[in-house]
Write a structure and sequence with these properties.
- The complex is a heterodimer.
- Chain A is mainly α.
- Chain A has two domains: about 1-40; about 40-270, MetI-like fold (Orthogonal Bundle), CATH 1.10.3720.
- Chain A is built from eleven helices and no strands.
- Chain A has helices at about 5-25, 30-40, 40-50, 55-85, 95-110, 110-125, 135-160, 165-175, 180-210, 220-230, 235-270.
- Chain A starts with a helix and ends with a helix.
- Chain B has helices at about 45-55, 80-85, 100-110, 115-130, 145-160, 175-190, 205-210, 225-230, 235-250, and strands at about 10-20, 20-30, 35-40, 60-65, 70, 85-90, 165-170, 195-200, 210-215, 220-225.
- In chain B, strand 1 (about 10-20) and strand 2 (about 20-30) form a beta hairpin.
- By secondary structure, chain B is α/β, with parallel strands linked by helices.
- The termini of chain B are far apart.
- Chain B has one domain: Rossmann fold (3-Layer(aba) Sandwich), CATH 3.40.50.
- Chain B is built from nine helices and ten strands.
- In chain B, helix 3 (about 100-110) crosses helix 4 (about 115-130), helix 3 runs parallel beside helix 5 and helix 5 (about 145-160) packs parallel to helix 6 (about 175-190).
- Classes of the chains: A mainly alpha, B alpha/beta.
- Chains A and B meet through helix 8, helix 9 and helix 11 of A and helix 2, strand 6 and helix 3 of B.
Chain lengths: ~270, ~250
């Protein structure tokens, strides 16, 4: 913990730091213009709640939350399937392993925005029953799930490989099948270890929901752009940014806490 | 051989290599029901590998393993089924760290034998009670001493009611003051007639508990016999050399 003197020093240095930043920004030649264009209280509020001519960024942001929530669940499931398939041993399963490897290679290599265009404009163009008549948001979710599952599968895989072989040997020695050992012994330990990096990926996913706007969905970033274009004021971008931060900061702090807890637990384990 | 004297375990010409390194060079061994056989020998002599081959955790390169008259190395035999009847306890305990003591013990009876929860827990608690561990039932393994962890690992194996127990240097990872509690548990099992194949560095323990001692070197059983003979008048000069080193180190 900080002592009295340390608190004083850290408070003083924090205040000084921000004063310097504010002074430097305020002295810039365009500072008044920027204050009006980006931080006007009137426009901040108006873009947040919306008006007759512009969409509300707050309600548009609910679309981001919706996309995030649906994608996250699907990613957790699909990625786990890929990670498990990738480590099934035996020559019979070679084609399955190959598909899993190809999948992760492909979707980790292609930029998300290209996947969005290919899915969002390509699949409707195919004219297939059902699949070609989904909403923009649905195509967006599909693209996010495809790309993020490739990353998250690798996170799971690292977790699975971090569980020592002796755990599997102990489970198999008791008569558990390969699948039972995976389900009861290996996966529970693997998932516990990768929760912090998983949350980290989900912070990225939360922000990338904004890219779904390229398919025409009006989510927060797109709503901010509409407001900026019609009012010639960019306070809307600040509002959208703050909304994203509002979600990601708690997620980041939660991740920190899990990492700290994991560290404490490991150290306690090492003492025993 | 009369039917009731069917050996608990027979190994014939068991061979195992890891890459170029042949660790087991043809092991022949029979263990009678209720017999306690100790494997002694330097580190790297193949003791642990031999135990891991018996329950097929390591596949054999050649040879046969017969458990209670049934050849388990035959093709088409379900290894999962065989392993239920063979308990193995490892040097490093290998408890499941994310499960409580009770769950560690009941996992296999419930998932493998299909026992219901109440029955499996009853069986587990009876074993924990017997070995003085019942107050630890809800602890996680990390919170136990090494000796307690190893005793839980033995209980976990016993909960499957195995007909044969394999113990792989179960005291080697323990602090000296914790060895006694584990050895006394094993003595108790021996006195109840549990058939056991034990790899150990504890020569005093081997002398007390074993019906027969096998000395392994470089993947072969060089000498075997009752402990009184092996430890007092070994015939093979290499056994003599090994034992004299052990005596010099004050381990016998």
């Amino acid at each position: 913990m900080l002592g009295g003197r340390a608190v004083l020093v850290s408070s003083a240095s924090t205040v000084l730091f921000f004063v310097v930043i504010v002074v430097v920004v305020a002295l810039a030649p365009g500072s008044e213009l920027v204050a009006e264009r980006f931080f006007s209280p009137f426009h901040l509020w108006r873009s947040l709640v919306g008006s007759e001519s512009e969409p509300s960024i707050l309600s548009a942001f609910l679309l981001n939350v919706y996309i995030f929530a649906i994608s996250e669940v699907l990613i957790l499931i699909l990625a786990l399937v890929i990670a498990v398939v990738r480590q099934i041993p035996g020559p019979v399963f070679f084609p399955f392993r190959m598909v899993a490897v190809a999948y992760t290679d492909l979707f980790r290599g292609v930029p998300l925005i290209l996947v969005l265009y290919i899915i969002g404009f390509g699949v409707p163009g195919l004219g297939m029953a059902f699949f070609s008549y989904l909403s923009d948001v649905t195509y967006g979710i599909i693209a996010l799930v495809l790309v993020y599952s490739a990353y998250v599968a690798e996170v799971y895989r690292a977790g699975i490989e971090s569980v020592h072989d002796s755990q599997n040997a102990a489970a198999r020695s008791l008569g558990l099948s390969r699948w039972q050992s995976l389900r009861f012994v290996v996966l529970p330990q693997a998932v516990r270890r990768v929760i912090p990096p998983l949350l980290n990926d989900f912070i990225g996913l939360q922000k990338d929901t904004a890219l779904v706007s390229v398919l025409g969905s009006i989510e927060a970033a797109r709503a901010a752009q509409i407001y900026g274009a019609s009012q010639f004021n960019y306070a809307s971008y600040v509002v959208a940014a703050l909304l994203f931060i509002l979600i990601t900061i708690p997620l980041a702090r939660f991740t920190d806490r899990l990492i700290a807890r994991d560290k404490r637990r490991r150290e306690a384990g090492a003492l025993a | 051989m009369t039917p009731e004297k069917t050996p608990a375990l027979v190994l014939e010409g068991v061979r195992k290599s890891f890459g170029e390194n042949e660790v087991l060079k043809g092991i022949d061994l029979a263990v009678a029901p209720h017999e306690v056989v100790c494997l002694i020998g330097a580190s790297g002599s193949g003791k642990s590998t031999l135990l891991r081959c018996v329950n097929l955790i390591e596949p054999l390169d050649a040879g046969r393993v017969v458990v209670e008259g049934e050849e388990i190395t035959a093709s088409g035999v379900d290894a999962n089924h065989i392993r239920r009847r063979i308990g193995i306890v490892y040097q490093a305990f290998n408890l499941f760290p994310h499960m409580t003591v009770l769950r560690n013990i009941t996992l296999a009876p419930r998932e493998v034998l299909g026992m219901d929860r109440a029955e499996a827990e009853e069986r587990a608690l009876a074993l924990l009670e017997r070995f003085g561990l019942s107050d630890r039932r809800d602890e996680y393994p990390d919170r136990l001493s090494g000796g307690q962890q190893q005793r839980v690992a033995i209980v976990r194996a016993l909960a499957m009611r195995p007909s044969l127990m394999l113990l792989d240097e179960v005291t080697s990872a323990l602090d000296p003051e914790l060895v006694a509690e584990v050895l006394s548990l094993i003595r108790e099992l021996a006195s109840e007639g549990m058939t056991m194949l034990i790899a150990t560095h504890e020569m005093g323990f081997a002398r007390d508990i074993a019906d027969r001692v096998c000395f392994l070197e470089e993947g072969r059983i060089l000498e075997e016999g009752p402990p009184e003979r092996i430890f007092t008048s070994p015939e093979n000069p290499r056994t003599r050399r090994f034992l004299s080193r052990i005596i010099a180190a004050g381990r016998l």
